């Protein structure tokens, strides 16, 4: 299934209800579609456009701005190894070669069992903790080869399932906003002054 399924349509409607403007829900719905299918399909983008009242082209334009959205199947766990200068100086090349050996794929490749996609990436803003690795965008710091082996073993064994959800999605816990705090009480085109400002007047 490549459009959002019925359960996710219901969730999508709840998410859309959090925003004064429906299209503001585009990014959360893209995460939802990636969580459902493992990547963002064209059909899902068209479906999201229907749901938020915009065009598939606009959804595509938003999605392609962000590296964490994938448009073709990738591994359950995307393993990014930083190859920029700090990490390079502290062993990133060795780590990448080690990862290639352990996983049996080159950067850009996905293991045959669909578990891992290996990427050699640019700086991930953890330069003081080099060499840095991310798994589905969760950092791991100062990763030596033995740490990498343990990380892969733990992922294979499902030991990190609570911390690292599949396919790079951001949310681990569903957010539920009480109805009395949902969007819609304030017209976004008629902003009201915040309480602190009113108190100062
Ligand atoms: S150089 Fe690797 S995280 Fe910045």
């Amino acid at each position: 299934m490549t459009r959002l399924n019925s359960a996710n349509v219901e969730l999508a409607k709840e998410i859309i209800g959090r925003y004064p403007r429906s299209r503001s829900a585009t990014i959360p719905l893209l995460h939802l579609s990636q969580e459902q299918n493992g990547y963002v399909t064209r059909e899902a983008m068209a479906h999201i456009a229907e749901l938020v009242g915009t065009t598939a082209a606009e959804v595509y334009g938003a999605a392609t701005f962000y590296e964490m959205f994938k448009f073709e199947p990738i591994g359950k766990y995307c393993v990014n190894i930083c190859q920029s200068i700090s990490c390079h100086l502290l062993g990133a090349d060795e780590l990448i070669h080690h990862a290639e050996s352990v996983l049996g794929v080159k950067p850009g490749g996905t293991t045959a069992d669909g578990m891992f996609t290996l990427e050699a990436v640019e700086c991930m803003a953890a330069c003081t903790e080099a060499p840095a690795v991310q798994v589905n965008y969760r950092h791991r710091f100062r990763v030596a080869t033995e740490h990498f082996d343990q990380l892969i073993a733990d992922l294979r064994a499902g030991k990190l399932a609570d911390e690292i959800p599949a396919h790079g999605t951001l949310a681990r816990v569903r957010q539920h906003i009480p109805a009395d705090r949902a969007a819609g009480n304030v017209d976004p085109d008629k902003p009201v002054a915040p309480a602190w400002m009113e108190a100062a007047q």
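The beta strands are 77-82, 116-121, 133-135, 138-140. The chain has two domains: 6-71, 77-168.
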